[in-house]
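Hi L.,

As promised, Amidohydrolase:
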Amino acid sequence: MKRWILASAAMAVCAPAQAQDLAAEVATDMPMLMDLYRDLHANPELSFQEHQTAAKLAARMKALGFEVTEGVGQTGVVSVMRNGDGPTVMIRADMDALPVIEQTGLPYASKVRAVSSAGVETGVMHACGHDTHMAGFIGAARRLVANKGAWSGTLVMILQPAEEIGSGARAMIEDGLFTRFPKPDYALAFHDAAAPAPAGMIGATPGYALANVDSVDVTVKGIGGHGAQPHTTKDPIVLASAIVMKLQTLVSRETSPIDPAVVTVGSFHAGAKHNIISDKAELQLTVRSYSDETRKALLDGIGRIAKGEAMASGVPEDLMPVVTVKDEFTPSTYNDPELTQKLIGQFKQRFGENRVAVMPPTTGGEDFGRYRREDPENIESVIFWVSGTPQALLDKVAAGEATMPSLHSPFWAPDAEKVIATAAEALSAAAIDLMPASGG
């Protein structure tokens, strides 16, 4: 499968003539969009705390002539523009930032501190690039309003809260996103990428693009006692260790090798002193899959293994492990293959053959997938990637002088101008292609 193209020459391919007008229009917006980006970057807000972010973006959408509803799904914003007969296209951007202390050294770096939902004071940073998403979203809105003669249909543009905790899409849906507002025929979004490719390259994945993400807690109970007399105890650390090792077989021996799955134990806590056998051990797992069937098999398997190992260790029935699947579930994101291939072809015509790649799926999570899941027979959706990696960083990585920071890193500083310009043009062009004016 084709992957990100590393050569910077990939950016040199010229777009066809018919793309130049829209590209030129986006270029005229860039000074304003970059000012917006820097403001958003310097003033990030955590999940479900995006009050100021939502207000300033809602004001811009109202000024463009959209029917704007605020407070959808707590802090979400829905903007609707009806422009004649035709399909309904929804474009989404996410607004929330992460509890990360920024270390980019940018002149507009965030110095914001806030209290998270867990009650912990923390630094706040747009370490996942949602600030570029919002600026690109506004850029696309401006171009679509300016080019209303080129499309016919209904445009629904949503600003979603709380993507980082996997709750924002669900909150908007439960608050009537598809009953109070026009339900889309097509749903579009993009995400910046910390990719080994020049900033401004586009990648898309037909089919499963991002994974189901589950967080699972396993509380392993035992009978504590003196470390010098282990025979009088039921050691939860030994039992939990056996559970950790057996969990590896869920992927290696119970899941098809061509069906990607991940079961990672990210945390193991037990005990407090050298010579005391604790009465409890606690495991925290992240579980990744694509299909709902595989997800169920993995989650069921975790419960079965935990109980089975406890029984094998002679733990009493009333002390069986407790497995808790957290409510922070993020469903897999499925890009409709035909629509994805159509957009890839259109992007290649617009941006150039070597600036667009078909990407392999990732086991990262994104709650954008919830929108299609609400009505998979009638809603087609695509999320695509736009590389944000600055050329200077690519050169240093190639020379062995630097490593590539990932999304969520305190050092992630994308080439925002190229991300925003590319995304604004791609989103607006895709929407126009999906609802062309009659005779267009």
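The longest strand covers residues 212-221.

Thanks again for sending the construct details.

K.
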